[in-house]
Design brief:
The chain is α+β, with helices and mostly antiparallel strands. It folds into 2 domains: 141 residues, Beta-Lactamase (2-Layer Sandwich); 159 residues, Alpha-Beta Plaits. It is 45% helix and 22% strand. The chain has 10 helices and 12 strands. A hairpin with a 5-residue loop joins strand 4 and strand 5. Helix 8 packs across helix 9.
C-alpha cells in the first residue's frame, strides 16, 4: 500500500470515529462557519450535515447564546487554549431533547462542553472543535441529591404534626431576631400560648382527637400570622410566635385575634363536638433583655398569669 492509500485509509478511519462517537463534534473556522457536524449532532438536531457545510453557526442556530459562546470561541482562537462549560453554569448549549423524553426524567438534554483549538500546518489556530457531552443523567442525579438534602433539612426543622417550625428551629430563628434588634432597633413581640385543659381533651376524647385539636390550632395560627412572622410548636400543646416589627400593642391585637378565632372554632371528631380555648402571654423586646431566654421567660410568665387569671385570655408582660 502506497503512502496516498495509507493517508486515505487513515482519513476514513478518523472520519468514522468523528461521526460515530457518542459525543457531539462541531468544527468551526475563524468565521464560525461549520466544517464538521457529526452524527451525534445530526441525530439530536435533525439537521443533515450536508445542509450546514460552510454555513455560519449563529445564523443557522439563532437561539444559541451568541454573545457568551462567541466570546469563548474567540478566546480559544486567540489564546490557543481550551475553554469549558458545565451544565451547572448553563444547562445546555443546543436545546436538544433527551434520549428518553417520555420515560426519562427530563425533556431537555443537559450538556457539558469543551472547546479546543485545531492548528494548521503553519502552527496557527485555523479551526476550533466544540465537543458536546450529554450530562443529563449526572445532572438529574445531582439535582435529586440536592432535593433530597433540602427535604432532609426541611424535615429537620419542621414539626411533623403541625407543619410549624420545631422547637430547635424556632429558637434558632428567635435568637437571630434577638441578635438583630440592637442593630435594627425594630420592635418585635414574642407570643407564647397553649391550649387550655388539653390533658382533659386527651383523657376525654383520646390522643388522636387531641392531635386533631393541635392541628386545628396550628392552622388558625398560620392563618392569623403574617408571612414574615416566625411561628413554631414549642412542645406538646404549647406554641410560640415572634411578630417581627410589632410592638406590644400589635402583639396584644394579634393575640386577641387568635384567641377569639380559637374560641369560636368547633372541632368535630368521630361525631363528637370538641370546643377549646387558649391562653396567651406577650412580651415586647427591649434593651433591658440580657438574653433571648430572658425574652422567652417574660412571655412564659405572662402566659402563666393568663392561666392564673382564669384562662382564655391574653396577658402582656409588665
Amino acid at each position: 500500500m502506497n503512502q496516498l492509500s495509507e493517508d486515505i485509509s487513515e482519513m476514513h478511519l478518523l472520519l468514522g470515529i468523528i461521526h460515530n462517537v457518542d459525543v457531539g463534534l462541531v468544527v468551526l473556522d475563524r468565521g464560525h462557519r461549520i466544517k464538521i457536524w457529526n452524527h451525534f449532532m445530526w441525530n439530536h438536531s435533525g439537521i443533515n450535515p450536508s445542509t450546514l457545510n460552510d454555513k455560519n453557526l449563529f445564523e443557522e442556530f439563532p437561539l444559541l447564546p451568541k454573545q457568551w459562546l462567541q466570546k469563548k470561541l474567540d478566546t480559544v482562537f486567540l489564546l490557543n487554549n481550551r475553554a469549558f462549560s458545565s451544565w451547572q453554569q448553563r444547562p445546555y448549549i443546543f436545546k436538544f431533547n433527551s434520549y428518553n423524553p417520555i420515560t426519562g426524567r427530563s425533556e431537555t438534554m443537559f450538556q457539558n462542553m469543551t472547546i479546543f483549538p485545531l492548528t494548521g500546518v503553519s502552527g496557527e489556530v485555523e479551526h476550533v472543535c466544540l465537543m458536546l457531552y450529554d450530562a443529563t443523567d449526572a445532572a438529574l442525579d445531582e439535582q435529586a441529591l440536592q432535593s433530597a438534602n433540602l427535604e432532609l433539612d426541611r424535615l429537620g426543622r419542621i414539626d411533623g404534626l403541625t407543619g410549624l417550625l420545631n422547637r430547635r428551629a424556632w429558637e434558632n430563628a428567635m435568637l437571630s431576631e434577638f441578635k438583630r434588634f440592637p442593630r435594627s432597633g425594630q420592635k418585635s413581640s414574642l407570643v407564647m400560648f397553649d391550649i387550655d385543659h388539653f390533658k382533659k381533651v386527651n383523657d376525654t376524647y383520646g390522643h388522636q382527637a387531641g392531635d386533631e385539636v393541635i392541628r386545628i390550632v396550628s392552622a388558625l395560627l398560620q392563618e392569623t400570622k403574617r408571612e414574615v412572622d416566625i411561628a413554631g410548636r414549642y412542645g406538646g400543646e404549647e406554641f410560640c410566635v415572634v411578630l417581627l416589627g410589632s410592638d406590644k400593642q400589635g402583639g396584644m391585637l394579634f393575640a386577641e385575634r387568635l384567641r377569639e378565632a380559637v374560641e369560636s372554632t368547633e372541632v368535630i371528631y368521630e361525631d363528637l363536638l370538641i370546643k377549646f380555648t387558649i391562653s396567651l402571654g406577650i412580651s415586647e423586646i427591649d434593651d433591658s433583655l440580657k438574653s433571648h431566654t430572658e425574652w422567652l421567660e417574660q412571655s412564659d410568665k405572662a402566659l402563666y398569669q393568663s392561666k392564673e387569671g382564669g384562662r382564655n385570655r391574653s396577658t402582656l408582660f409588665k
